[in-house]
Amino acid sequence: MKYCSACGAPVSRRIPSGDNRHRYVCDSCGTIHYENPRMVVGCLPEWHDKVLLCRRAIEPRYGLWTLPAGFMENGETTAEGALRETLEEAGARVEIVDLYSLINVPDIDQVYLLFRARLLDLDFAPGEESLEVALFDEHDLPWEQLAFRTVRKTLEHYFEDRRRGRFPLHFDDLDRRS
Amino acid sequence: MKYCSACGAPVSRRIPSGDNRHRYVCDSCGTIHYENPRMVVGCLPEWHDKVLLCRRAIEPRYGLWTLPAGFMENGETTAEGALRETLEEAGARVEIVDLYSLINVPDIDQVYLLFRARLLDLDFAPGEESLEVALFDEHDLPWEQLAFRTVRKTLEHYFEDRRRGRFPLHFDDLDRRS
Ligand SMILES: [Zn+2]
Ligand SMILES: [Zn+2]
């Protein structure tokens, strides 16, 4: 951020009075530009003993496999966002079962909210952001070609939980790398 | 948003190619300025049969009672944010028990994440954003002077759950008013 979105003047990075964090502050109109974490919402679509994954057609992690998920948009609920991303990326219609995985990724200011979901039919097809969409069971899943640590962790929980026959909500914080 | 934060030129509101939503797009450098929902994180601090509330010293809802909560900041986890807000607004040290309430407020692009928490001592005191901080049981709680629907809903769940002796995570979507 270099310029004020309210007045177009340059911003500087400083601690506003009464605050204790560095913010972008407009030198001209005084607007403080707060920045907050974003939510990534998505689904873990199930079909019998398989789960649906998408192979990414975009950066980052082009060509790697992921669960259908993306940034939550204004005006929607977390579940609505998860359904939208699943339809957009995988062309897949699902019914949400439950929130399954809440993962903090403080290094990149993201919080993942992934829902367990039941795939309603097999008429899925890659959207513009996916190269392919496919169903995998635990053993043929491309574990070495997963796009994100959040996705790996959620899938690890999932197959462990399947053996136990119960699917509690999992909370994870990804390690800070810095 | 009127000006591009990357280059300072005016922005216009339109649907970028390949997208299906209106965004602020820079007419000069082409930057698309996405806007996403924010998380409000906070605690429901318990002390025996009482809960801690703060009376707001700021707008909106000046003078009304609320749970200690505020916008999650970059670089922190949801639980860290909830602890920070509880310390800032109520001067209260708590230990988080569990996530208790996840409430979508799509009308104002917010998601509330409220944690049940155990108050560690009684040395709390209002922070700059609070007029007073106090403990209430169900019957003396200022039900008619609560600041937010999210807080009311969470407190209603809480006292009902206390009677049942179990505290599952509650999901709510506040009605769209428009
Ligand atoms: Zn300005
Ligand atoms: Zn620009």
Automatic annotation (TrEMBL), chains A, B:
<feature type="domain" description="Nudix hydrolase">
    <location>
        <begin position="36"/>
        <end position="159"/>
    </location>
</feature>
<dbReference type="InterPro" id="IPR029401">
    <property type="entry name" value="Nudix_N"/>
</dbReference>
<dbReference type="Pfam" id="PF00293">
    <property type="entry name" value="NUDIX"/>
</dbReference>
<comment type="similarity">
    <text>Belongs to the Nudix hydrolase family.</text>
</comment>
<protein>
    <submittedName>
        <fullName>NUDIX domain-containing protein</fullName>
    </submittedName>
</protein>
<dbReference type="InterPro" id="IPR020084">
    <property type="entry name" value="NUDIX_hydrolase_CS"/>
</dbReference>
<dbReference type="InterPro" id="IPR015797">
    <property type="entry name" value="NUDIX_hydrolase-like_dom_sf"/>
</dbReference>
<keyword id="KW-0378">Hydrolase</keyword>
<dbReference type="InterPro" id="IPR020476">
    <property type="entry name" value="Nudix_hydrolase"/>
</dbReference>
<dbReference type="InterPro" id="IPR000086">
    <property type="entry name" value="NUDIX_hydrolase_dom"/>
</dbReference>
<dbReference type="Pfam" id="PF14803">
    <property type="entry name" value="Zn_ribbon_Nudix"/>
</dbReference>
<keyword id="KW-0460">Magnesium</keyword>
<dbReference type="GO" id="GO:0016787">
    <property type="term" value="F:hydrolase activity"/>
</dbReference>
